[in-house]
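Need the bound structure for guanosine-5'-triphosphate, inputs here:
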Amino acid sequence: MKFIDEAEVHVHAGDGGRGCVSFLREKYKPHGGPNGGDGGDGGDVVFVVEGGLTTLLDFKFQPIIKAGRGEHGRGKEQYGKRGADKEVRVPPGTLVYDIDSGALIGDLQARGARCIVARGGRGGRGNAHFATSTNQAPRYAQPGTPGEERRLRLELHLMADIGLVGFPNAGKSTLITKVSAARPRIADYPFTTLVPHLGVVRFEDDGSFVLADIPGLIEGAHRGLGLGHRFLRHLSRTTMLIHLIDVSGLSRRDPLADYETINHELQAFDAALAAKPQIVVANKLDLVEARERYPETRRRFAERGVELWGISAATGEGVAALMREVGRRWRALRAVDGFPLPPGEGQGEGSRLAQPHR
Ligand SMILES: Nc1nc2c(ncn2[C@@H]2O[C@H](COP(=O)(O)OP(=O)(O)OP(=O)(O)O)[C@@H](O)[C@H]2O)c(=O)[nH]1
Ligand SMILES: [Mg+2]
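Answer from helper R.:
Posting the output first, comments after.
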C-alpha cells in the first residue's frame, strides 16, 4: 500500500432543497389554502477515523467529495427528503486544515472519531408556512441555502508513542523487526527505509506501545539532503525517542559526532521534537570492532552526561532489557503528562498494525 501523508481535497456539502409553492385543490373549494412542503436539508461531508488505515492515498483518487442535495418540497405539504451524508474514511492522526483560512478544523485521532468538514445547506420552507390573515395565498417559498464548500489540506501525523531516530544504516529497521511484527526492508545501503513503519511492542506482561521507524537522517536533512526531514512530523506525537547509533566504525564516522548531528537536525526541524526525552543506544555490539570501541565510546558519552545503552539489534542481545526500560520510562512520562494508563494499553491502535512476535 502506498504511503501518502499529505493531500488536498475539495469538499462540497449538499444544497438544501427548495420549499414548494402549491395550493390545496379540491372540488367545491376553488381557493384552498397554501400547502407547499419544505425542502430537505443537504447532506454533510463527514470524516470518520478508521483504525487500520495508515495512508491518505484514497484522497489522490477522489479530489472532489460531494454529499447529497436535499430534495425539493412538494405539494400537499410533502417534505423533501434530507440529502445523504457523505462519510469518508481517514487514518488515525489526520489533521484537517481549511486552505483558505488556514484554520485547523479537525485533529482526528481516536478510532471512530468524526468531524463534519462541510455542513449541508438548510431546506427552504414551503408556502404553507407563510399564510397570514392579510395574505392567505402566499405565492412564495424559501429557496434552500447552499451547502458549505471548502478546500482542505490533510496532513497525517502517525499515532506513534515512541520514535526511532538515527543515521541511515544505524539498524533502526533491524530493531523494530526484532521487537514487533513490522517488516520494513533491511539492507546495508543508506535510505533503505523510504516511508515510516509502525509496530506494536509489548513489554513486561501488560504493557504495549507503538514504535515508529522512519527513514534515516543525515547532516543537512533540514536543507533537503538525503530524504530530508519531512518524515519527522510522524514523530510529533511521540512521548520519547530511541536514538540509535552505529558504534562499529563501519560508517567511518565518529559516534559522538553522529549523535550531535542527528540532534542538530531534530532541532532544525522542530525544537519541541529535539526536546523530547531520548534513550541513546549503541548498536551492532555483536561486531568485534564495536565491542572494542564500546567502553571508550560510553565514557565519552558519559562525559556529556549521556548514558549509553548497548545492544545488538541483529542478534537481539540487550534488546529485551532495552524495551523494558523504554516501556518503563514511557509509562512514567505519560503519567507525568497526566495520561492515566489503563493496564496493558498504549495508544496502539489498529487491527492492521503489526502485532508483536511471541
Ligand atoms: N552486525 C550487525 N549488523 C547490523 C545490526 N543492526 C543492523 N545491522 C545491519 O546494518 C545494515 C542496516 O540496517 P537497517 O536496519 O536497514 O538500518 P536502518 O537504520 O533502518 O537504515 P535506513 O533505513 O537506511 O535508515 C543492514 O545490513 C543490517 O543487517 C547489528 O546489530 N549488528
Ligand atoms: Mg531502515
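Comments: The chain has a mean pLDDT of 90. The pocket of magnesium ion (ligand 2) is lined by residues 172-173, 184, 192-193 (CB under 6 Å).
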